[in-house]
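Recap from last week: sequence in, structure out.
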Amino acid sequence: MLKERYIQFGFLVLIFSIQNVFSQSVVQIEKRAMESFKNNQFAVAKVDFQQLLARYPESPSYNFYYGVCLFQAEDKNKAKRYLEFSINQSATFCDAHFYLGKIYHLAYQFDEAIASYEKYKSCNPSDPLHATTEIEYCKNGKSLLASPKSLQLLSRQISAESNFFQKYDLEAIGGKIYADITLQTKLDKKKAHVPICYFKRGETYKFYSSFGPDHEQQKIYFIQRISQDVWSKPTEIPLSSGTASLLYPYFDPQNKCLFFSSDGFNSMGGYDLFKVSFDPETNSLGEVQNLDFPFSSAADDYFYIPLNADGSQAWMCSNRNSTIGNVEVLQIQSASYSGNLVAVNGVFNDLVAPKNKRIQITVKDLSDGKSYGPFTSDSTGNYQVILPGSGSYLFQAKIDGTEDRKSTRLNSSHAN
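Predicted structure tokens:
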């Protein structure tokens, strides 16, 4: 009997020890995960929160933090269901509304994004994540997408964001893009910023972005050649939009047009592509214009460099369809035609998720391999695809919230 009691006691001690070790393990993992999260080490924190979520899948807290880590470090669309779960289970995680707004925003679902941003502002009126600014971006996006253009994709390469400009083939116009440490100010060095500029031998000006002597955001400057190896002091271009940054300028001397990227003006979110007429002799500007969708997007779009006089061909880069840390380097051509255009109108209905009305369509001309798009549906599922004429096309559709791509062939004629 005594032996049996010892055995029972031994089992109780063993069970208690296992539970204690398990509890300590969870506490340690959570502490490590939160420390990484607070230090913005989202890829590291994601691994720990994934372990915690595997043990406690119904935890609103672990769903929220894991969702944010996915958004910041891996795949924004995958984050959606974890963020939705957290706010459906608890009102504690107000920030989840903001991140859901960003996910809708990046999918061009501007009305849904605005609704989520407003929910975030209602539970956090101080608005530390700047949802008010994002709402303005969405309003701009709705206006810019009212008349979408068709874009032909000539080439596409994936590059690390840090050196994407090395992929630009500038043989058509000459010159090169490079990092110029001689243009750094003391503040640039302090912020570890090296100005990037395009320059062609024989030209009179160099344009670049810099923090200058005392700016919080980057502004656009230019210097003028005085003699073979002597340049003027930098001149700041009087171009600003509140607290917005101005990046990657390119000046077309033939058309006196300055192209640049900015998160200000009427951006639809992130950095959009802009142009403005500019006279370096008088340092005077015309009216700033957004290049509009699909040149600009709800993500970040950089360094537009036209390759011909009318600007119909160009290089640019974007992170709209790339993984975090990478960008797409795109050679594009504006789809302008003298012949008859074909408008293909349709309505998208998702039989699996009926409330989803968002789809993104790209089209390939099977006769010459040229691609057009992307074309995005509106909040009711309606879409319009503009094509250069009748022919045989391959339509590829990406449905919001999935990684699947659907394809179908269509023979079009000169009719709606």
